Amino acid sequence: MDSPADLKWVRNAGSVFVGAYSPQSMGDYISGPNHVLPTGRVGRIRGGLSVMDFLKIITVQQYTRRALRALGPHTIALAESEGLVAHAQSVRVRMR
Question: Could you tell me if 48 and 36 are in contact, meaning their C-beta atoms sit under 8 angstroms apart?
Fold first, then answer.
């Protein structure tokens, strides 16, 4: 691999080292990803250990009344198709 353009064929990898001047040990100690990389074909589903693995992510969602009225019926349909009637009802109550 000589250039980042060669990455187009990579589909699964914990980390990729590009070029003759990018040994794995640079990733282990200097460039950040460290040497905790997936093994046993786990690279198919995740990359190497990173700082993101130690962060707590909290998502925030806020709908307006207009947005709830527009998207609520879709939520109700999905919830009912899964048999989650209380989920559907929680939307119905707020759409009044």
Answer: yes
What confidence tens digit (pLDDT) does each residue in 6-51 have? 788 888 777 788 888 888 778 777 776 666 777 788 878 887 777 7
The DSSP line for 5-64 is GGGGG--S-S----STT--HHHHHHTSSS-S----TTGGGT-----GGGGPPP-------
Helix 85-95 and helix 65-81, axial crossing angle in degrees, nearest 10: 160
Q: Could you identify the residue written with the tokens 């990803």?
A: 33
| Among the listed residues 56, 57, 38, the one whose alpha carbon sits nearest the alpha carbon of residue 48 | 38
> Residue 81 and residue 47: Cα distance in Å, rounded?
34
pTM above 0.85, yes or no: no
Closest by CA position to 37, among listed 54, 10, 12: 12
